[in-house]
Amino acid sequence: MSEKEKIKKIMELPLLASRGVVVFPHMVIPLLVGRDKSIAALEDAMMEEKMILIAAQKDESVEEPEIDEIYSFGTIAEVKQLVKLPNDMIKVVVEGIERAEIKEFLDTKEYFLVEVESHPEEVIEVDTDTKALMRIVVKEFEEYIKYDRNLPAETIMSVNSIEEPGRLADVISSQLDLKYNQLQELLEATDILERLEKMLTVLQDEIEVLKIEQDINKRVKKKVEKNQKEYYLREKMKVIQDELEEEQDSKTEIESYYNKLDEAELPKKAAEKVEEEIEKLDRTPNMSPEATVIRNYLDFILDLPWNVKKDEEIDIKRSEEILESDHYGLKDVKERIIEYLAVRKMAPAKKSPILCLVGAPGVGKTSLGRSIARALNRDFVRLSLGGVRDEAEIRGHRRTYIGSRAGRIISAVSDSGSKNPVFLLDEVDKMSSDFRGDPASALLEVLDPEQNKEFSDHYLELPFDLSQVLFVTTANVAHTIPAPLLDRMELIEIPGYTEDEKLKIAEKHLLPDIYKDHGLSSEQINISSNAVLKIIRKYTREAGVRNLERKLAAVTRKVAKEFLEGREKRALVAVNSIGKYLGLPDYEYQESKLEDRVGVATGLAYNQAGGDILDIEVAVVPGKGELTLTGSLGDVMKESAQAALSYIRSKQNDLNLTDGFYKDYDIHIHVPQGAVPKDGPSAGITIAIALASALTNRKVKGNYAMTGEISLRGRVLPIGGLKTKILAGRRAGINNYIIPKKNKNSFEEIEKDITKDLNVNFVSHMDEVIDLLLIEVDADADY
């Protein structure tokens, strides 16, 4: 028996099937193990002598290999280190000891347990031929390393120190990037010389392949470098050509700006500024961001209508015709506008006042501005100021900021194309201010005839003459406009429309446009006058006609739908059919005609919607003399309530009130529609009469509405917005009114068709109101 046969062993070992890895003897390698059988095999090995057989599976894609899917030749390895990872995986470091062949699978349930026969390295004499073969293999391996950049240079040093031929072959095999089956063939080569010869053949084949790959890579790289060089040169030529063209374009652009400057005939200061900016543009690189800023600035300045003026044509008769055709009613307003135009005709050089049209939404303020522009034959510009809270919106941004632009005033004048348009500043009462500035203050310069001839916009940086612009402003209420701004304007109050006026407006203006917008003609649909009147009375409650227009459009839409569904006859919309199209009424006509009540009085209010009626309610309950005010009341209205209560206390004896009633009872004053803010002094007498009624238990006449401020002495002071308030009362069906005596002249100026059939009581003192309205005394009252 030879020495080789003496050391052969038959042993039982757990099997670890490796995927994509062939482990050679003398090889130390980390493995990541995750399969249950492999983990169980490792655990069994760790309990014994830490020895395990590692054999590669034939197909690495198989998750759970069978017996015939594992190579019979493997390597007996010693487990050097085992670490359990958080994801139920195990990292193990093994060192190959010797080759072994599987003889039998003993167990395959929990893990593979196999009987193996080891194949230790035979001890051979290293003769001259073997040494020569080893040297050739090492030399070829050195050549291989030159082509394979992934192997470190230190590898050749460790290989040169190996004297055993079998170990040399195994170490080199573990370093080669070979196919799976080639590595397995080298592992199964038990004869050392045969293994070295196979190794030499494999190395020579790999070197030839690497040489070819390198040659191909060089040719590709050379070609790519050539393409890159050509691309670089082409791009360089493009840049040079673009630079030459840009220089030519730049010269053309500069000449164009100079030509525009000559044609514009700008004021001296503006011309000097433009010339300075053109010179700066000429010195600035064409692609520089600064060049874009300069171009935008030059374009804006040169597009401004410095000297473009539209000839004004004032024909009073024609102006009257335009106002009559565009608006129905508004006699006083039209007369004031005609007077304004007449003064302009007689004294063109006189600085015009700034008109401020104040009225509820939908009464025609904006359209009146358009009519003024038509009457003067001027361009019309509209700018909405609602919600504007940044001063830069008016004056513009300085050019130091990115994205800076001119203010909306100068921009709108530029868009109009003339220096004397009619400029409508809409919703001037809805501006606000914050940390960015106060736009209302910026408007002072715009609207002041003494200052706006040299208006300075931050972006423009030049004075621009706005004195020839005809400014018209609009607002819903005047009291929210800042006093300095209000001082520069002449207020023209536009009251709400009467029912008759609304009916005429609907028939003359609204319905023809609505029919046209909905693709219908008067031959297909007719909404009767009585139907329109019902909509006015029961489906809208407004000073203007905006909601009326919406309701009429709703009816027309439903009729248009009927025609699409097969209707053939003309649709005659009468009073009885309004409910079919609009549903139940939103309001009850003459709803204020209620029964006489204790502690409730009806007041007239002026608001942004044009006017309304307010029921003021007072409740008196035992308490400690507290006064409670609810209903979103403003400070002025709260002060009116305090003044009214003080007046009632001063009339304690006249009203037969017990001493100290204000100490023993809590008084609660409430104005319904609590979500709607309310303010102003004109509810003074209404609060006082409701207080007197609640405290004396005397009823207030139901069909009366009143307005007037009260003093501590009971004097009834005048109020504003009387016509609007009367219209609100008429819309609610009220016929009896109590009005301050000092407002008698204002009342007489109201159109007769509004005041006819009204019972109006002019009062100067609160005592008159009490005598007129408190009608009944309850004998059971105890205070």
Secondary structure: elements and pairs:
Layout: H1 3-6, E1 10-18, E2 28-33, H2 36-47, E3 51-56, E4 73-84, E5 90-107, E6 112-119, H3 128-147, H4 154-160, H5 165-175, H6 180-188, H7 192-264, H8 268-283, H9 289-303, H10 316-326, H11 331-346, E7 354-359, H12 365-376, E8 380-384, H13 392-395, H14 408-416, E9 422-426, H15 439-447, E10 455-456, E11 463-464, E12 470-475, H16 483-486, E13 489-494, H17 499-517, E14 525-527, H18 529-538, H19 546-564, E15 571-573, H20 578-582, E16 597-598, E17 600-605, E18 612-622, E19 627-630, H21 635-650, H22 661-664, E20 665-670, H23 684-696, E21 699-700, E22 704-706, E23 709-710, E24 716-717, H24 722-731, E25 736-740, H25 744-748, H26 752-755, E26 759-763, H27 766-773
Parallel strand pairs: 1-3, 7-12, 7-13, 8-9, 9-12, 14-15, 17-22, 19-20, 22-25, 25-26
Antiparallel strand pairs: 1-6, 2-5, 3-4, 4-5, 5-6, 10-11, 16-21, 17-18, 18-20, 23-24
Entry summary:
By secondary structure, the chain is α/β, with parallel strands linked by helices.
Describe this structure in words.
There is one protein chain. Residues 1-6 have low confidence and may be disordered. The N and C termini lie far apart (138 Å). The chain is 44% helix and 19% strand. The strands form 7 sheets. A 7-stranded mixed sheet has the order 19-20-18-17-22-25-26. A 5-stranded mixed barrel has the order 1-3-4-5-6. Strands 8-9-12-7-13 form a 5-stranded parallel sheet, with helices on both faces. The protein has 783 residues and is an alpha/beta fold. Helix 7 (192-264) packs antiparallel against helix 8 (268-283) and helix 23 packs across helix 27.
